Amino acid sequence: xxxxxxxxxxxxxxxxxxxxxxxxxxxxxxxxxxxxxxxxxxxxxxxxxxxxxxxxxxxxxxxxxxxxxxxxxxxxxxxxxxxxxxxxxxxxxxxxxxxxxxxxxxxxxxxxxxxxxxxxxxxxxxxxxxxxxxxxxxxxxxxxxxxxxxxxxxxxxxxxxxxxxxxxxxxxxxxxxxxxxxxxxxxxxxxxxxxxxxxxxx
Length: 202
Fold this sequence. Notes:
The protein is an alpha/beta fold. It has helices spanning 16-27, 55-66, 83-91, 117-127, 160-180, 187-196; strands spanning 2-8, 32-37, 69-74, 103-109, 135-136, 142-144. Strands 1, 2, 3, 4, 5 and 6 form a 6-stranded parallel β-sheet that branches.
């Protein structure tokens, strides 16, 4: 069985993105073990002079490193991902590089009509950065719009069409993970490039 990290892309106490990942955790429990990971306790990134990475970040990075893949669910704030998610990814590309060649599936929920579409596009650009180098599943979007009305009293998605689409995307992600995990020949080089990359040296 595959082991995935479900990264909650917000520090909000009440989030439909957290609910979406919890639904996936329950819905796909026969196919994968999805462990939810919160970013709310990660300190603000400040590029420390001693280059010491906080223990909480190290522990989270180790879990991501060991996982077969990562599912990130992001809301959309001002046409972008939340600052808390950017902050977490800043730490995950500073001295530790758990996302290099890691298969990633992006989902998102928002209260409005677009279902975090702009934020998901932005997140793809961030994950493609030289210091992150994630392998993002292509041509796939799960956009949960009007998310406050999307779940029933048992925290299940109410729209069967949405459930079916999410199921098909998750099944594609399982195949994508298998394919990506065979692309190991350049992993060492990719990791080294991420470690050595510096905007100051360009």
